[in-house]
Write a structure and sequence with these properties.
globular, binds magnesium ion, 14 strands, 10 helices, alpha/beta, binds threonylcarbamoyladenylate, 317 residues
């Protein structure tokens, strides 16, 4: 594996070529790093699942370069979904749409719906458009971590998670730290009104500025692996909202003081910075061998709610 390749136009063209030939390419998006394969190459998708250690019946998001590709993968697209695309793509939003016959079971987990996203990160967009110019239609990519663990927000994190499992043709593209830091908002567009399946940086209020939302929370028919209770978990035990003791890690807004003997893992000054640093702070706790990390979640709606959702999952044991 050509580890941590820098991202010149040349290298992105090369990476797109590798993808077309069935290789795995870890790439930066503005949310977290993804582990890309050609979404139409069944054996490449199978190998990606194997590297992640993820059950094969889980659906994976198809990433596309522009809205012209939506009709290739999806059909019967509701008007509100088109309005959401126009407003929030490229960006940290995934839409679950009725699949076309091109979205095979190995991408949708056998469901009749496909997840689509146009990421905003310029390296991701360039990779996707190069891939498209080579005749590809979309790239299937879950977060580039081992199943159940914390999503990577840097190329170094990816290398630590899966570097040893990659083959000689596979690549990790280095695009620096992820700007958002938590995974995309997932919106189910299979009904008359959209339903939020996973909170993210495209917030409920932002969505409501475009369309009414179905707040019915019965999510059973749609399987979202991100909603498994134990997910996004570090090795350390994550404890929420109590005073940290000596020898424990602490993640909290900068206004929270660090008690004596406590290892401060991050002290963000804003909600945005909290999101950006959360996963790397959890990883830092693990790399320092901490047994317990205390997290003081941010208050408020929007991105703060998405952060609390991830903290809850990280703390579920
Ligand atoms: O920000 C993100 O969404 C990142 C970047 C790389 O794009 N990707 C990501 O993928 O978080 P992943 O696979 O780790 O989480 C995507 C979630 C999974 O829980 C999956 O079950 C759900 O999206 N999903 C994907 N396709 C779906 C579908 N057709 N129906 C229902 N859920 C779907
Ligand atoms: Mg994931």
């Amino acid at each position: 594996m050509d580890q941590l390749a820098p991202c010149s136009i040349e290298s992105l063209r090369n990476a797109a070529n590798h993808l077309r030939k069935g290789a795995l390419v870890a790439f930066p998006t503005e949310t977290v790093y993804g582990l890309a394969v050609d979404a139409e190459n069944e054996s490449a998708v199978a190998r990606m699942y194997q590297v992640k250690g993820r059950p094969a019946n889980h659906p994976v998001i198809v990433h596309i370069a522009d809205q012209n590709q939506v009709g290739y993968w999806a059909e019967e697209i509701p008007d509100y979904a088109i309005a959401l695309m126009h407003k929030f793509w490229p960006g940290p939003m995934t839409l679950i749409l009725k699949r076309s016959e091109r979205a095979k079971d190995f991408v949708t987990g056998g469901q009749d719906y496909v997840g689509l996203r146009i990421p905003a990160n310029p390296i991701a967009l360039k990779l996707l458009s190069e891939f498209e110019s080579l005749g590809g239609h979309g790239v299937a990519a879950p977060s580039a971590n081992r199943f159940g663990s914390v999503s990577p927000t840097s190329a170094g994190d990816v290398k630590e998670e899966i570097g040893e499992l990659l083959g000689p043709e596979d690549l990790i593209l280095d695009g620096g730290a992820s700007e958002v830091g938590v995974e995309s908002t997932i919106i189910d567009c299979s009904r008359a009104l959209p339903r939020i399946l996973r909170l993210g940086a495209v917030t409920e209020a932002m969505i409501e500025s475009i369309t009414p939302i179905d707040s019915d929370s019965d999510l059973e028919e749609i399987r979202v692996s991100g909603s498994l209770t134990r997910h996004y978990s570090p090795r350390a035990k994550v404890v929420i909202d109590r005073e940290a003791k000596s020898g424990e890690g602490l993640i909290a807004l900068s206004e929270v003081m660090t008690p004596a003997g406590v290892i401060r893992l991050s002290s963000p000054n804003s909600i945005e910075e909290y999101a950006r640093l959360l996963y790397s702070a959890l990883r830092k706790g693990d790399s320092q061998g901490l047994k317990v990390v205390v997290v003081i979640p941010p208050r408020g709606e929007g991105l703060a709610a998405a952060i609390r959702d991830r903290i809850m999952r990280a703390s579920a044991h």
